[in-house]
Structure of 3'(2'),5'-bisphosphate nucleotidase 1:
Amino acid sequence: MSVCLQSSRNLLFHARFTLSFRHHQVPENRPFSKMPVLQSKDVPLFLRLVSATTQVASSAGSIARKVVKSGELDIVDKGGGNDPQTIADRAIPAYVTQMLRQSFPKLTVIGEEGESVSADNALFEHLIPPSTSNSLLDKFIFPQILKLKIPDKLRGIKEEDVVIWLDPLDGTTEFTKGGLGHVTTLIGIAHGGIPVAGVIHEPFSYHSGDGRTIYGIPGVGYGGCQMVLPQTGKRIITTTQSHSNPRIEAAIGILKPYRVIRAGGAGHKALYLVEGVANAYVFASKGLKKWDTCAPEALLQAVGGKMTDLSGQAYSYNKDVSFYRIFHLLLVFNQHEN
Ligand code: AMP
Ligand code: MG
Ligand code: MG
């Protein structure tokens, strides 16, 4: 399958934010640091990091749930009238980054809300999970991760060479409208510019009141969901619900879909592919950023799928990339559409 659309490079977006949490101190003695195996040098750093990421993503889900329960989303428009940020978007990255850095201080974290969360973080301290009451962090959700057999290139990964691409709340537009099933927390782990693992957490999953966490490690495995093959012979495409434009609609039209499923969130749509709801995710526009795609790309690769730009090229997740936006065409195929 091929699609031709003109690329316009003049839309390049050069903003670059690195998370800064000087003002926010998560109290010591969090349960996270009570898991000595996450510090153990007997287990490869990569596996400890993936395991820790699943734990902290799961725990962060309670922040989104608390915000909904409080009814106080504290919405700020980041620009253009269609890019909202809520208090959950601000609190989750502070928590996730601080928690990961307790065990992995040399990580580079690049997150969507980089600038805004360095403001007055005391405003959301009440949302941070208390150390004693979060049972998710008292036990491993995926104890099997620490025992996975991994190739030497993953075994040799050093902390300082890892880049975490963090979208604390993907699908915020839907979140602000009560479309909670579209919301995920995305934590992508990149090394050498490629996604080596991805964690997707659904805080409002219908599977569990405590949310659902899914991980994928390309070439190694995945967990937390069951990959389902999509229907063959029917091209079902999923795309944006709240950020469409004529270019996206034109691209979808060219693909002659049997059905189009419009939904919020890059993470949510990636799960549609993994669980056999749709055959492809098409987004022929600017708007997606690398924190939207790193974790979904890792999971898709882990189940045999693929994510590319229009010309079939892979995206780079190096920390030195000069822009974070994904341009113009994102085609995500599962194995039936390769
Ligand atoms: P959607 O499929 O519309 O939920 O978009 C997936 C991700 O890309 C979300 O994190 C959106 O915030 C982001 N995104 C897509 N299009 C835009 C846009 N036009 N402006 C801002 N963010 C966008
Ligand atoms: Mg997003
Ligand atoms: Mg977001």
